[in-house]
Amino acid sequence: MLTLIWAEDQHHLIGRNGQLPWHLPADARYFRQRTTGNAVIMGKRTFESLGKPLPNRKNLVLSSTLSEQPGILLFPILAELANWITHHPDDQLFVIGGVRLYKELMPMADRLLVTKIDATFDGDTYMPAVNLDDWTLQSTEKHAADDKNRWPYAFLTYVRRPHA
Ligand SMILES: NC(=O)c1ccc[n+]([C@@H]2O[C@H](COP(=O)([O-])OP(=O)(O)OC[C@H]3O[C@@H](n4cnc5c(N)ncnc54)[C@H](OP(=O)(O)O)[C@@H]3O)[C@@H](O)[C@H]2O)c1
Hints:
The chain is α/β, with parallel strands linked by helices. The protein has a single domain, classed as Dihydrofolate Reductase, subunit A (3-Layer(aba) Sandwich). Helices cover 21% and strands 32% of the residues. The strands form 2 sheets. The protein has an 8-stranded mixed β-sheet with strand order 5-4-3-6-1-7-10-9, with helices on both faces. Strands 2-8 form a two-stranded antiparallel ribbon. β3 (39-43), α2 (44-50) and β4 (58-62) form a beta-alpha-beta unit. The two termini are 21 Å apart. The chain binds NADP nicotinamide-adenine-dinucleotide phosphate. Keywords: NADP, One-carbon metabolism, Oxidoreductase.
């Protein structure tokens, strides 16, 4: 199963200066719980923003300029990555950004996990449009702000709508 996972603000903002625009521990925990033990797929900038491969996960990185390094499976072109995905239908694969990968792999995805943060931030990187005709909202889990999480947020799960 291929899942796109991301967090966005009210205006679909996802990044600022190569980093996340917010600090929201509950979302970081959700991301870790969902992806641990599985494979994460990312572009070069997202990989660089993490600083190192994510532990206990298979790290797939798409980049034509990075060199091979321990802990990652490197794909220089999208077609090779798409081919790898096609050959791992029984694995839990999570696309974790950034913009081009979300856009290019959305047609192959089975599920979207979206954290909606009920606030607006400054930034420079926005989630590509999602055509909601293609997706059914399966669940919404709302949370209020608290001591550690400064803004209200919700975890949304969309599954691909079956073809008519
Ligand atoms: N809020 C969230 O959930 C979330 C999630 C992920 C990222 N982010 C944020 O988003 C920003 C990073 O995302 P980004 O969109 O700027 O960058 P990105 O997609 O992570 O990285 C872009 C690079 O990835 C490689 N790449 C991507 N698509 C490719 C393709 N189709 N073919 C070949 N190479 C491809 C290219 O590297 P080469 O130039 O080496 O070929 C490209 O320069 C950061 O601010 C990060 O914190 C936020």
